[in-house]
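Problem: given the chain below (260 residues), write out its structure.
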Amino acid sequence: MNMPRLGRLLLRLLPWLCCGVLACAAFVFKFVLPGYSFSALVCCGIIAVILFYTLVPRLGARLPRFTRFTVGIVTALLILGTAAAAITEAVIIKASFGNPGEEADYLVVLGAKVRADGPSVSLWDRIYGAYDYLSTHPNTIAVVSGGQGPDEHMTEAQSMFDELTAMGIDPDRVWMEDKATSTKENILFSLDLIEEKTGVRPDKLWVVSSEYHLCRAGMMTRDCGVEFAGVPARTSRFSQKVNHFLREIAGVWHYLVLGS
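Solution.
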């Protein structure tokens, strides 16, 4: 086989090879690595785009007008979608740096999954983020917020309380809100708890969460009528950080459209 023919063959096979690699990656993300389902979805989306631009143009000879119209519409939608995703990601990244400033009176720490052997990686990241802040701001009270999911052996609030106090934080500085099942409830129930204990509902709330989550947490806090200040808990696993920063694009738009 001469080189030009080999080159054309490889060019024809390239889309299918890419789809095969992406399909294998999607399988690993979905069924081997817990917490990476969104990366699997992204792989499937890329496969769909590759197949579209590989197969639809083959209809050009029989249905030229339909093919041009379909390819044009899909291309325009992809460009608009990519631009919207890029702008949203830029906003998420900007929010991920938090709002350094004055000392917080009350610091709400958002929960994450508790596993059978203890806090998940995300929850540990938030515990460490809260510990760092409380260690350098001795007058701040933390409200650890998170209920108990059906597959958790204790509440997220209890897990965070146990770890923070074991690290040396005074138990009197850690209040537990153990009923919330969502971020919006984390905010609302924590505000209720602070008001119950102090008689005053704060008009500004400092919130510790994973850095990729601060944008959406801020949106929800402001929707509760409270000024927001973010305290980023740095994600320790790089692969998890990439996955979750991408996933947050969908999370932000889900909240904007559905309000939940």
